[in-house]
Amino acid sequence: MKGKMKLSVAARREENWGWIMVAPTIIGLVILNIWPFLQTLYASFCEHLGFGFYKFVGFQNYINMFQDPEFWKATWNTIYFCILTVPVGIFLSLLVAILLNAKVKGKGFFRSVFFLPMVCAPAAITMVWRWIFNSEYGILNQMFGAHINWITDSKVVMVTCAVVAIWSAIGYDAVLLLAGLQNISKSYYEAAEIDGAGKITQFFHITLPMVSPTLFVVLIMRLMSSMKVYDLIYMMVEDTNPALSSVQSLMYLFYRESFVAGSRGYGSAIVIWTVLLIGIVTVIQFVGQKKWVNYEV
Length: 297
Fold this sequence. Notes:
The chain has helices at residues 2-43, 60-66, 69-101, 107-119, 122-132, 139-144, 157-182, 186-194, 199-227, 231-236, 250-260, 264-292; strands spanning 46-50, 53-56. With 297 residues, it is mainly alpha-helical. The protein folds into two domains: 2-37; 66-292, MetI-like (MetI-like fold, Orthogonal Bundle), CATH 1.10.3720. It is globular, with a radius of gyration of 24 Å.
């Protein structure tokens, strides 16, 4: 009996220490994530009167939002940006990860080079790319002898921003996929070589299935990041740019409505719509991952 009491006391003490250790994370989650989200949800049903005061207007912000052509254009721009960046970005990241996992000299150097964009300031990266894409003296037009308005032409500005986004994210995604590749036991490849399987067969029957859990995580992260894109577009495309409407994302529209126009309630409704879209996409991914993600070792 005493032994059970001592065990229960020790277990309770261990549980208390566990709560103490995770308390900073839980408090930070509540203060920095959950509470601001609840405030945003409430503000989406209100009209901002200034100085922190709100007037409840019900679903009026959502009605105005769904009737606004600019909102639907921003929604399509966000989805289109995901279509351009996510598949190509993940494919290139996986390709880079496979190359970095191969037996080549200077792997550490190349890993640092590919990861470098993640540690550089976004403003500095944007300045370099704006110079590359400059229509008058940009290095890209100079190389091809062309005169393409990469940033001001509504037909190509989205592709231009997508290129910068893909380039910026390849290193980080490749490092994550590289970790997944290095967890694959070499015995699988040795057995496949004995059976006469080639490199392509090994990739589709060993590498791809075994790295699919990491690939799934990268896919979720990249989709969420693409749907929340703001800073890249804000720094690449100026307010006076005639092509702004062709690349304006939901988060950029939220910034304009909330901090430029001062319509915090309408801007909050845009945020809730974006969260809903991300939630739908995430649920679809978790349902679909049962068909292609392999968790068996």
